[in-house]
Design goal:
- This protein is an alpha/beta fold.
- The protein has two domains: 8-132, Response regulator (Rossmann fold), CATH 3.40.50; 137-233, Winged helix-like DNA-binding domain superfamily/Winged helix DNA-binding domain (Arc Repressor Mutant, subunit A, Orthogonal Bundle).
- The protein is 42% helix and 21% strand.
- It has eight helices and twelve strands.
- It has helices spanning 16-28, 39-48, 65-74, 90-98, 111-131, 164-175, 183-191, 199-213, and strands at residues 8-12, 32-36, 53-57, 81-85, 103-106, 137-140, 143-146, 151-153, 159-161, 180-182, 223-226, 230-233.
- The strands form three sheets. A five-stranded parallel sheet has the order 2-1-3-4-5, sandwiched between helices.
- α6 crosses α7 (183-191).
- The radius of gyration is 20 Å and the shape is elongated.
- The structure holds calcium ion.
- The site of calcium ion has 5 residues, from loops.
- Calcium ion is lined by residues 14-15, 57, 59-60.
Length: 235
């Protein structure tokens, strides 16, 4: 791995002055910021890109922030969500947290506090991801993968050499066992920013994994495609 990728934040806020000020300050903290000004734009961005955090205003034109949070969770997207609430109402906060937000701030808020909470949420999420870290030698079914050596052994104990990208994709899917990993996240993690190959490329990788590791590659037990969304590994 080269230098770690900048953390990406989706900023959903319709008040332009506040939006611009937040964006500027987040960028000064070296975050990569994507802007959305209403609920529809937010949901579109969420389905197109991978984010490390969503900052979400509640009062938005069209779909409100609470519904956006709810939709994100219905889609099984675990991205941390920080709600910005204009109304100092505990009912609102409770609803936001119930619908899947991880934290909230009441407007007007202190910028430093917001930046601290952003940092904390991103770090907490990183720790959670690390907890799911896969060991260097990982076995499933009758297969063994050795990530350090970039090789695997299938049920017939045949040695399979893995390319760097195959190894990275396997690791990513296994780290997120039983969860759909979105194509955008795969492209970002394995291929890096702005070097997006077509999704057919990922399909070919998955087909190879099935050939390597499945008992019956046409009825896969471990490597699943979830149409229009991404890919899932199950043990
Ligand atoms: Ca608003």
């Amino acid at each position: 791995m080269t230098e770690p990728a900048r953390k990406s934040i989706l900023l959903v806020e319709d008040e332009e002055n506040l939006h611009d000020a937040l964006r500027l300050n987040l960028e000064l903290e070296n975050y990569q910021v994507t802007s959305a000004y209403d609920g529809n734009q937010a949901l579109k961005a969420i389905s197109d890109e991978y984010f490390d955090l969503v900052i979400l205003d509640v009062m938005l034109p069209g779909i409100d922030g609470i519904s956006v949070a709810e939709t994100i969770r219905v889609q099984h997207n675990p991205v941390p969500i920080l709600i910005l609430s204009a109304r100092n109402s505990s009912a609102d906060r409770i609803l936001g947290l119930k619908k899947g937000a991880d934290d909230y701030l009441n407007k007007p808020f202190n910028l430093e506090e917001l930046l601290l909470r952003v940092q904390k949420l991103i770090e907490k999420n990183e720790r959670l991801q690390e907890r799911n870290a896969v060991p260097n030698r990982y076995s499933f079914g009758k297969n063994i993968i050795d990530f350090r050596a970039q090789e695997a052994f299938n049920k017939k104990n045949e040695r399979i050499r893995l390319s760097k990208k195959e190894s990275m994709l396997l690791k990513l899917l296994i780290e997120n066992k039983n969860e759909v990993v979105k194509r955008e996240k795969i492209l970002q993690t394995v291929w890096g920013y702005h070097v997006y190959p077509t999704t057919r490329t990922i399909d070919n990788f998955i087909l190879n994994f099935r050939k390597y590791f499945e008992e019956d590659s046409r009825n896969p037990r471990h490597f699943h495609s979830v149409r229009g969304v991404g890919y899932k590994y199950t043990e």
